C-alpha cells in the first residue's frame, strides 16, 4: 500500500522437538543460511539467526501485512524438510510445536543482535528452559508452565 511506512523487528525462538541436541556446529553452518533464505522468501529481512544444539533465535524485519505465524510455520516446515532430505541428522529432525515472538524497537536492535550472536557463551550458564521462561516473564507474556514443554519425552 502506498504511503505505508514501518519498522517492525521481531525475535523468534523455537526449539528442536523434545529439545534434542540435533543442531551440531556443522549443521548450523549450512542450516542457518538456508533458514535466512526461507525468511527472505516469506518477505522478511533477516538480521541474524543463531542458536545452539537444541534451539534457534531469529531476528528479522517484517512488513505489517505479513503474519509472523505464517512465516515461522513456513520456515520451520521447509527447514526441517531440508534437513531430513539432506540426511543431516542421524534421526528424523523436527521442530517443536509453537514458538516465542518478541518485538523490539530499532534502538534495541544492537543489544538483541549481540544477545543472539552470543548464544553459545550464554548457554554455558543457562539452559534453554531457564532462558525461555525468563524471556516470557521479562516481556509479561502469560503462560502456563505445564504447556511450555509438553512435547518432552
Automatic annotation (TrEMBL):
<dbReference type="InterPro" id="IPR002686">
    <property type="entry name" value="Transposase_17"/>
</dbReference>
<dbReference type="Pfam" id="PF01797">
    <property type="entry name" value="Y1_Tnp"/>
</dbReference>
<protein>
    <submittedName>
        <fullName>REP element-mobilizing transposase RayT</fullName>
    </submittedName>
</protein>
<dbReference type="InterPro" id="IPR036515">
    <property type="entry name" value="Transposase_17_sf"/>
</dbReference>
<feature type="domain" description="Transposase IS200-like">
    <location>
        <begin position="5"/>
        <end position="119"/>
    </location>
</feature>
Amino acid at each position: 500500500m502506498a504511503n505505508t511506512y514501518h519498522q517492525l523487528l521481531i525475535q523468534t525462538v523455537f526449539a528442536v522437538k523434545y529439545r534434542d541436541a540435533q543442531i551440531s556446529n556443522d549443521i548450523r553452518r549450512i542450516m542457518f543460511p538456508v533458514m535466512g533464505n526461507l525468511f527472505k522468501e516469506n518477505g522478511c529481512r533477516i538480521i541474524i539467526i543463531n542458536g545452539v544444539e537444541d534451539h534457534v533465535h531469529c531476528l528479522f524485519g517484517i512488513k505489517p501485512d505479513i503474519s509472523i505465524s505464517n512465516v515461522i510455520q513456513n520456515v520451520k516446515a521447509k527447514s526441517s524438510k531440508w534437513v531430513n532430505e539432506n540426511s543431516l541428522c542421524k534421526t528424523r529432525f523436527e521442530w517443536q510445536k509453537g514458538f516465542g515472538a518478541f518485538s523490539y524497537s530499532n534502538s534495541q536492535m544492537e543489544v538483541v543482535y549481540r544477545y543472539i550472536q552470543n548464544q553459545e557463551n550464554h548457554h554455558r550458564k543457562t539452559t534453554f528452559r531457564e532462558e525461555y521462561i525468563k524471556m516470557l516473564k521479562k516481556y509479561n507474556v502469560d503462560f502456563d508452565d505445564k504447556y511450555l514443554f509438553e512435547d518432552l519425552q
